[in-house]
User: Fold this.
Amino acid sequence: MKSYISKDYKNVIKRLICTVSIAMCSLLYAGLNANRGVVHDVSTRVDAAIPFNKFFIIPYIIWYGYVGFYLFYFAVYDGEKFFNLLWGIVSGMLFCCVIFYFYPTGVKRPELQGNDIFTKLVRLIYSNDNPYNCCPSIHVLDSVLIAAYVNRDSHPTLKTKIISTIISILIILSTMFVKQHYFIDAVAGAALAYFIYAAFNYDEIIAKVTEKRVPYLEAEEKR
Assistant:
């Protein structure tokens, strides 16, 4: 990685500066993250079956490092994928904010008991993030989007891709186990992530489908 940075450090720095756009979107989210009167409840039976689990606060917090690490990774190794990922995250956050404005949702949180490190971390998250505007889940959106880019990239090893996928899954589960999101929030976040990935990588997807389709058609013609 050092060799990549030393050869192209100016472009890497320029790319990383562009991540300020995520911080700007976060300010917009913060402005909407409040009780503005009507709060819709999108909870389901699935949520009732999911118990609160304070230990899942660890993967929930790991999300911050997961996003930051892979933005840096793509900024160094692949400028095109970096910008596809970055603008995918930004456009996803902006789309979520539009939904938050017109259809605000909320999550019922449990009363926290205990004073251990995990409970303290949950309290910290609760105190800095109001239980409003949860659908779609931005945590899930970013995690699925990053996992998709990592799995489609040629640089990471299979082991790295598996680890990335596991982290992404744990982050998704954590949003529900620490009662930051409902099941519908997670589904909506994942669906939005796949839609955005397809939109930003349309040509690549069509090329892959065509590549697989042509041999099949040729085989059919020979029959």
User: Anything to note?
Assistant: The chain has one domain: 2-222. Residues 2-222 form one domain. The first helix runs from residue 2 to 17.
